[in-house]
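Let's sit down with a protein and look at its sequence and fold side by side. We need material for that, and I hope you will provide a protein of your own picking. Once you have written the record down, we can walk along the chain together.

***
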Amino acid sequence: MLDKILQWDRDAFVYLNSLGIEQYDTFWSTVTKFPPWIPLFVLIIALFFVKFPKRKAITMILTILIMAAFVATLTDLTKNVVERLRPNNDEELNTLIRILRSPSGFSFFSGHASSSFSITTITVLFLRHHFKWVYLFYLWPILFCMSRVYVGVHFPIDLMVGAFVGTVSAWLFYRLYGLLILPYLKLDHHV
């Protein structure tokens, strides 16, 4: 069963990666990096300070940063335990695919997927009652994940599991914020 899933994963990756068009290489090579998304992060931080009192905004942002560190650590630990080769480093595949980037680390699960989905999901959970359009932020992790197949460095399952881990982590940290931090802020607010 696992062999069939992994074969489907490889076949799906080769097919999706082969859909790449040279004219879009610069776009996808740019989208796959963190720095081009810095304006989005600045917007997210600004929205917290626009909609919440300063202290609450700071605690929300700190919660996101702690969650991001947790997700990055969990991702790195998993990669080092599973040790799945990236497609660009797999000798059976790398002659069949388009490779635009060549990272050396392991593939399972995707840190791009886990980090982008965790940050986006917790941001949406915090801001959804204030901005109906906040769900548009999901364009970032979707493009971010698609770029990883396009540039030849992640299998679809790497991305799906990373997205799942990121989403669940965001929900967990949102709940922890509500249980551990929010009551303290409310108590402090009434004093």
About this structure: The helical segments are 2-18, 25-31, 38-51, 54-82, 111-127, 139-150, 156-190.
